[in-house]
Structure formats: structure tokens, C-alpha cells
């Protein structure tokens, strides 16, 4: 797989080049989800370089600033928001015992740029808060994020809380972070995703399926 120019520029922390490339991609109509995903890939490379001792904390902070700049540019993209029904609302949060939020925030940004209304519950969210949020906002999709093994039990308890409130199977649960199929089975979630762009595509397909079923 050939690395894109944008991924390479982010990896090099070349701010001017990154912004120039993003402006060019917006001009030719490239979608926000692709632009942000490439930026995320570059940030991942920066993280790898940091782990190898080739980059330092200041470099990590710079990559975060670059991401904010890219977000600012694509937020003004004319076609960044799709025509989505108001009912397309997603409840999102990092589960109890976990305070990681970078992946969560990235996916929330991607979802919002694609027209979805996202309610962000934050981090260290108790199972009951997810259940209460589903009832209050009439949610059909809940995204649970977790990057530590302790989060698996919290995800499982969250699904159980939804069951106790009689919200399953009407509410689909998507887990992301440090997860796989085994974790999905353990938590009894409906789906698991390995990256943000995949998560956005999954949510879109679930809403499309729901709309088709309602019409049928």
C-alpha cells in the first residue's frame, strides 16, 4: 500500500504542507472522512516514532495541533454534512474505569462531519448513564470505547444495563478501541470496529438498514 502525500506530511510534522494538501483535496471534492482518516494515519505514525524514541512529547503535541488545524479546514467543506434525518443520533462514551478519549474524539468528529448528531458522554461513563441516555434521547446506536482490558467488564455491564431497561435489541451496541471478535462475544455487543473510518461506515449502514426496515 502506497502511503499518501498527506499521511507522509503529517508524519513529518510538516504543517504548511499538510494544510496545503488538505486545501487542495477539499478543492477537488475529496470527502472529509478520507481526509481525516489520512490525517489519523499520519498521527499513528507519529505515535510509532515516539515509541521508538525518534520523536518526543513535543512532537506528539504538534501532531495533535495539526489534527485540529485539519479539522478546522474540513469543517468549512461545503459537502461535509450530509442530509441526515434528525433521528440519526448516536450515543458515545468511554466506558467506566477508562479515561482514554483520543480515539473516541476522532470518531465523533468523523461522525459529525458526515451529518450525524453525536451525544458525547465523555469518559469513565457508568453503564446506567448509557442506559439513561438511550431512553432520554431515543437512541438506536450506542458506541462504547475502551483501551484497557478493565474496560471489557464495563462494556459487558453496559450491555446488561441496556437489557435490564428493556432496550435490547432495539439499541445496537458498537465497541471500539482495544477490542476484537472475542471481546465482542464476551461483552455481548453487536459489532466491533478496529478504526474510526470503519466505525463511521458501520453506523451509516446501520442507519440505512433501519430506514429501509421502517419503509418496508
TrEMBL record:
<dbReference type="GO" id="GO:0031419">
    <property type="term" value="F:cobalamin binding"/>
</dbReference>
<dbReference type="InterPro" id="IPR036724">
    <property type="entry name" value="Cobalamin-bd_sf"/>
</dbReference>
<dbReference type="InterPro" id="IPR003759">
    <property type="entry name" value="Cbl-bd_cap"/>
</dbReference>
<dbReference type="InterPro" id="IPR050554">
    <property type="entry name" value="Met_Synthase/Corrinoid"/>
</dbReference>
<protein>
    <submittedName>
        <fullName>Putative cobalamin binding protein</fullName>
    </submittedName>
</protein>
<feature type="domain" description="B12-binding">
    <location>
        <begin position="87"/>
        <end position="216"/>
    </location>
</feature>
<dbReference type="GO" id="GO:0046872">
    <property type="term" value="F:metal ion binding"/>
</dbReference>
<feature type="domain" description="B12-binding N-terminal">
    <location>
        <begin position="1"/>
        <end position="86"/>
    </location>
</feature>
<dbReference type="InterPro" id="IPR006158">
    <property type="entry name" value="Cobalamin-bd"/>
</dbReference>
<dbReference type="GO" id="GO:0005829">
    <property type="term" value="C:cytosol"/>
</dbReference>
<dbReference type="Pfam" id="PF02607">
    <property type="entry name" value="B12-binding_2"/>
</dbReference>
<dbReference type="InterPro" id="IPR036594">
    <property type="entry name" value="Meth_synthase_dom"/>
</dbReference>
<dbReference type="GO" id="GO:0008705">
    <property type="term" value="F:methionine synthase activity"/>
</dbReference>
<dbReference type="Pfam" id="PF02310">
    <property type="entry name" value="B12-binding"/>
</dbReference>
